[in-house]
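Quick question about two entries, pasted in order.
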Amino acid sequence: NGDDSSVTMDFGTVQNPAFLASDIFASVSAGTDPFNTFGGNGSGSIEVACNINSITATFEIGPGQNSSNILREMTNPLAAGTPGFGINYRLYSLTERTPASECRPDGTKLALFGNGNIIAGNPFRINVFGRIFATDANRAVAGIYTDVATGTLTF
C-alpha cells in the first residue's frame, strides 16, 4: 500500500568480543529467535497489507550505507582508521540462516514464503534474521556499530 516504516535489528551488547567463540544472532520477526544469545532483537516487525494479488512477489534488502556488493558492514565512527572500524554481518529470510536464504547486498531478490504468493486483504509479516560470524565480531572495539539498509517489496 505504499507505506514507509522502519524497524531496528539489535545484535545486543557483547563484552570482550575478541574472545568470542560463537556467532551473534538477532532478528526482526513476529516470534522469538531461538539462536539469539546476546539479548538483542528487533523493535517491531515488517508488516505488509496489499490490496492486490501477486504470484511473483519478491523482497530485497539493499546494500546499506557501508556495504559492498559482496558483504554488508556495520561501522563504528569511534574506531575510524583501525581494523575494528567495520564488521561484516549477514541478513537472512529464514531463522536457520542458510546460504540459500541470505539477503545478499548484490540485489538478489527472495521469493516470499518460498513461492511469492500474496493474497489481497491478507496481511502478512516479513521476517529478517541477522548474523555476525564470531571471526568478524572478534575485530570489534568499544563503541556502537550501525548500518542502515532499505527493504523493497516488489509484486
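Here is the second entry:
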Amino acid sequence: VNLGAGNDTFDNYPGDENTYAFNTATETFTIYGDMPSGTWSRDAAEQVYEISTPPEEREALIEAGEPVPHIVVWNATTGLRTESCVPGFEEENVSGDFIWSPDNRYVAFRNVLPDERGVPDAPTRTFILDTQTGSITGISDLARNHIVWIEEVYR
C-alpha cells in the first residue's frame, strides 16, 4: 500500500508489520511500526481508527476514574496519536465507519449505545469527533443509513 500525505509516501511490505514513510522534500525515512488500518482524511494527512482496550486495562482505567480510549487520530506528518473516548461506551468497544468532514477537522460516525444493543429498533446515534480538541459529541439519533457532509450552505 502506498499512500501520500503532503511530502510523505507511506509503504507497507508483505510479511512486515511496520509502516515506513519517505519524505520526498528532506529525503528521509521514518519507521512508524505497526499502524492499524483506518480511514484517511481527505487530504491524507491523518488517519482515524478504533482501538480495543484489553479487559484488564479497561477495568483498571474505570476503577481509577480514568477515561477509556476508543478512537485514535494519527497525524501522518508528526506521528502524534491522539486518543479520544466516546461518552456512554466506557465498558464497550466502538465500531463504525468514519466519515471525514470536507475541511478535515471533524469525523462523523454512528453507533448504538451499549445499553440499547439488542433492543428492537434501538436508535443508531451519530457522533462527531473534533480532531483539534479530541472531544466527541452525540448529535442525533434520527439518521438511519447515511452521513453526508455539506461543503457549503447556500441561503
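Reply: The first helix runs from residue 55 to 63. The chain has a mean pLDDT of 80. Hope that helps.
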